[in-house]
Amino acid sequence: MCHGKNPLLLGRLSHRFNRRIIFRGLDEQWKLISKRSYEYGDICLFKGRIYAVNQSGETVTVGPDSSVELAAQPLDPGIPGLNKMLVESEGRLLLLAINEMFYSFSIDFFKLDEKEKKWVRLMDFDEKEKKWVKLRHFGDRIFFIGRGCSFSASASDLCIPKGNCVVFIDETVLWIDNKRVFHLDQNQLSCGAKYLNLFLPPKWIHNI
Which N-terminal residues, if any, form the signal peptide (predicted)? Predict the structure, then answer.
């Protein structure tokens, strides 16, 4: 992100230490912005501001002067999901709490309440069961999730017949079986080749 001629970069020190550090073009130095661990966390640019989330769900914004401001309180400790990922979708900043176990896999979605500085779980009313349940229908939206590079898109814009899924596009999010797709309506994790083929280079490059 650039403020005038001064670039502002936020990155992770290493896979081992998981500290967020910031680089400013003004002084050309790297600076540690927090002593907290950001293991299993993520970085996202939203409305021109850098957001960083840690494992607890606590989220901060980083200003051009290296100042750190709380954007959202930690999630309730009872909410499952070791990995916390950020993604912008249709003008909203969403948090994905990914719970990956040997016997189960689930994702909870939260939206940022900027005024209250908290994450609000997205819910839907099940008329048959007459109760509120986790939102599982996002129309034709596809969420492409990677560490520091997540985004969402419309399935129709990508010429894909079905959306409403989460595609893991790199090998840093899941423990095993990366580069897969999670179908939200089916609550099922499967091979994501059809979606990941979108990122293959055009055929003419192979002929060079």
Answer: none
